[in-house]
Amino acid sequence: MEAGTTTHRLALLEAGDSIADVIGPLGLPTHIENFGTVVCVAGGFAVATIVPIAEALKMKGNKVISIMGARSKNLLFWEDELGSVSDQLIVTTDDGSYGRKGVVTEPLKELLESGEKIDRVIAIGPSIMMKFCAKTTEPFGVKTIVSLNPIMVDGTGMCGCCRVSVGGATKFTCVDGPDFDGHKVDWDLLFARQRIYLDEEKLSFERWQRQSDIRP
Amino acid sequence: MAKLDLNRVSMPRQDPKLRARNFNEVALGYSSEQAQAEASRCIQCPKHPCIDGCPVEIDIPGFIKAVGDGDMPEAVRILKDKNSLPGICGRVCPQETQCEETCVLAKKEAPIAIGRLERYVADWERANMGLINSPVIQPTPTGKRVAVVGSGPAGLTAAADLAKLGHSVTIFEALHVAGGVLMYGIPEFRLPKDIVQAEIDYVASLGVEIELDTVVGKTISVDDLLNSGYQAVFLGPGAGAPMFLNIPGENLNGIYSANEFLTRVNLMKAYKFPEYDTPVKIGHRVGVIGGGNVAMDAARCALRLGAEEVYIIYRRSEVEMPARREEVENAKDEGIQFKLLTTPKRFIGNDQNWVVGVECYKMELGEPDASGRRRPIAIPGSEFIIKVDMVVVALGTRPNPIIPSTTEGLETTKWGTIVADEVIGKTTKPAVWAGGDIVTGAATVISAMGAAKHAAADIDKYLRAT
Ligand SMILES: Cc1cc2nc3c(=O)[nH]c(=O)nc-3n(C[C@H](O)[C@H](O)[C@H](O)COP(=O)(O)OP(=O)(O)OC[C@H]3O[C@@H](n4cnc5c(N)ncnc54)[C@H](O)[C@@H]3O)c2cc1C
Ligand SMILES: Cc1cc2nc3c(=O)[nH]c(=O)nc-3n(C[C@H](O)[C@H](O)[C@H](O)COP(=O)(O)OP(=O)(O)OC[C@H]3O[C@@H](n4cnc5c(N)ncnc54)[C@H](O)[C@@H]3O)c2cc1C
Ligand code: FES
Prior knowledge:
The structure holds two protein chains of two kinds.
Chain A: H1 5-11, E1 37-43, H2 47-59, E2 63-70, H3 79-84, E3 88-93, E4 100-101, H4 105-113, E5 120-124, H5 127-137, E6 144-147, E7 163-166, E8 169-172, H6 173-176, E9 179-181, H7 187-194, H8 198-214
Parallel strand pairs in A: 1-2, 1-5, 2-3, 3-4, 5-6
Antiparallel strand pairs in A: 6-9, 7-8
Helix pairs in contact in A: 4-5
Chain B: H1 16-19, H2 32-39, H3 49-52, H4 60-69, H5 72-82, H6 86-92, H7 99-102, H8 114-128, E1 145-149, H9 153-164, E2 168-172, H10 181-184, H11 193-205, E3 209-211, H12 222-227, E4 232-235, E5 241-242, E6 255-257, H13 258-267, E7 285-289, H14 293-304, E8 309-313, H15 325-334, E9 337-339, E10 342-349, E11 355-368, E12 374-378, E13 384-387, E14 390-393, E15 397-398, H16 402-406, E16 432-434, H17 437-440, H18 445-465
Parallel strand pairs in B: 1-2, 1-4, 2-3, 4-16, 6-14, 7-8, 7-14, 8-9
Antiparallel strand pairs in B: 5-15, 10-11, 11-12, 11-13
The complex binds flavin-adenine dinucleotide (2 copies) and FE2/S2 (inorganic) cluster (FES).
One flavin-adenine dinucleotide (FAD) sits between chains A (3-7, 44-46, 49, 124-125, 149, 151-153, 178, 197, 200-201, 204) and B (268, 277-279).
C-alpha cells in the first residue's frame, strides 16, 4: 500500500518508533445526522476512514449499506469491522480473487436502480473512484459526499496549495473540506493539480531507494 | 559646535550578479571601524526624536553612544532592555519611515544609519557573548501562567516580556518550527534563519516553553487554555491567509500564492531538493503579481532558484509601491524586470492545465483613493499577453478565521481582524489580549512587537491584580 517516499518510510516504522511532527485533526468533521439510508463506499485504504463514519451514522439511526473494494484479496482489511457497523456489506475485488468481481460503482448502481430509497452516499478512496461514484449517483439525484485529497503543505489555510473548485468556487480543502459535494467538484482540475510534482516524486523515491539499498 | 558629518557610511553588499544566484545574505554588515565611524556622526541631540519614531522606544542615542565609545556590552544591554529581537529588527525594519525618518540629520538627507548599527550590535553580541549568556535579571516567579498563541514577532515579544516579569509562559505554535513569517516568509538572503533561531533560543532561555504542532482553535481551543490553568491568553497568530485575484485560470498548475512558494522555499528548504524532500517548481519566465515586500522576496527567490526572467507585475507605478525602497533597488540591481501599470485579466493554460501566459490590462492612474494613492484604472482594449510558465500571486494576506470562528466572545471587524484596544491590546473576551498582524492586518515586524509589548505590560498588571 506504500506509494512514494513518505509512505515507504512510514511502513518501515516499528511499534514504539516515533514521527517528529503530527498535527490534527484539521479541517471540518464529516457531517453526521439521521439521513435515512446511507451507502458508504470505500476504496482501498479508505476502509479505515469509512468505519468510524459508518459507525457514527448507525448510531444516529441510519440504515447503513457499505461497499468496500480493493484491487485484490491481499489488499483487503477490516471487513469484519466494517461489517459490524453496517446493515449490509458488499465486498468487491477488481480481479475477482475475493467477493464480487468488479469495481465498487457496479453494486452502487444496482442499489440505486433497485428502487430502494437511498438518501445519501459517502464515497472515500482514490480520486478516480470518488469521481466515478459521483458520476454514478448523479442521474439518480442522490447527494454524494466525497473526501478530497489534493497536495497540501500546512493544512491550516495558510498556503492555498490544496485549492479545489467546487460549484465554480475555489475552496481550500484543508479548512473548508475535506468533504465536498461530489457532483459539484471539478475533477479534472483535482487530477491535474495532483500531478504537479510527479517528476519530483519519482526523483525523490529513486533517491530514497538508492539510499535504502546502501543502508545495512 | 563641530561640523555635521553628512557622510552616511554605506552598507557593504554582495555583488548583485553573484547574489542573484545564491541564498547568502545580501547585506554583509558593518565592520567595527565602519560602525564606529557611523556612530560618531550622531550628535546626541537632547530631544532624541529618533526614540519617538521607534515603536518599541529603544534608547537609540544611548546605544549609539556606547558603540562610539567602543563599549559593546553596554550597547547590547541598552538595546536588549527594550528589544528582545535586535538582530531581526536591524535587518528588516523599515527604519526609513521610523527612527531614521525622525532623526534630525534626516533634514540634511543623512540620517544616522540606526538600523545598520542595531544589526551591528546584535551581530557583535551573537559572535562575542552568546545570546544565552546575556545578562538576564532573574525575576521572582509570580506563579501565574500565560498562554501565547503564535511564535511570530508578536508572540515571541509578548512571551519574552512576560517571562522577564516572572510569569510562566507557554507559546502554542501551529507549525513545526517557531518564528512565524520570520521563518517561513522572509527569505534567508534577507534574514538568515540561524539568526532567527538564535533569537528564539534566547526567548526560550528566559524560561518560555514552546509547544509546536498545535493549532489553537482546532487541536485546542482558547477556552480550553483558559480552563486548563492559564490565567491569561495573548493571541498573536498573524494574518496568514493568502489572497488571490479571483480571475479565470488562477488554479492552473504553476500558480502559487506567495505563502505557498515562500514556505516551500524558506521553511521546507525546497531550494535544496532532493536533499530536502519538499519540491518547488521553477519556471523559466516567472510573473510575480504585486508590489510589496512579499512580491520582492518571491521574485528574488525565483531568480535565485534559476529562473531566466522574473517580472514584477504591479498595477500602479513605482512611487506607489508599498515595498521598502531598498528592496526595490536590490531587486532591480539583481535583474528583476518591472512591468508597472499592469494588471492581470486572466491566466492562460495549456492542455495539461499548466500556466503558459497571463493576459494583462495596461492601467492608468486616476484620482487618489482611500489609501491616498492614485487609483489604477484599466485602459479598455489594452489587453496584451505576457508569456510565463510560473506565477506567484503576492497580493497580501488576511487573518485566518480559525481562532475567531472557534472562540466565543471574541469580536472581529469586517476584515476579519480581531477587535482589540489600540494601546493595550485587550480584546472583547475576558482575559484575552491580541496584537500584531491579527489586529492590524498585514503590517510590520516592529509594529507587531510594539503591540505585544504594550499587551504584555497590561497582562502583567491584570495578573498582579487578580
Ligand atoms: C483513503 C485515503 C485517504 C486519503 N486522505 C488523504 C488526505 O486526507 N490528505 C492527503 O493529503 N492525502 C490523503 N491521501 C493520500 C495519501 O496520503 C497518499 O497516499 C500519500 O500522500 C502518498 O505519500 P508518499 O509520500 O508516499 O508519496 P510521494 O509520492 O512521496 O508524495 C505525495 C505528494 O506529497 C508531496 N510531499 C511528500 N513529502 C512532502 C513534504 N515533506 N512536504 C511537502 N510535500 C510533500 C509530494 O510532493 C507529492 O506531491 C489519502 C489516501 C487514501 C487512500
Ligand atoms: C514575505 C514577507 C516579507 C516581509 N518583509 C517584511 C520586512 O522586510 N519588514 C517588516 O517589518 N515586515 C515584513 N513583513 C511583515 C511581517 O513579517 C509581519 O508583519 C509580522 O511577521 C507579523 O508578526 P505576527 O507575530 O503578528 O505574525 P506572524 O509572523 O505571522 O506569526 C504568527 C504565528 O502564529 C502561528 N499561528 C497562526 N495561527 C495559529 C493557530 N491557530 N494556532 C497556533 N499558532 C498559530 C503562525 O504559524 C505563525 O508562526 C513581511 C511579511 C512577509 C510575508
Ligand atoms: S494545505 Fe495550505 S492552505 Fe490547505
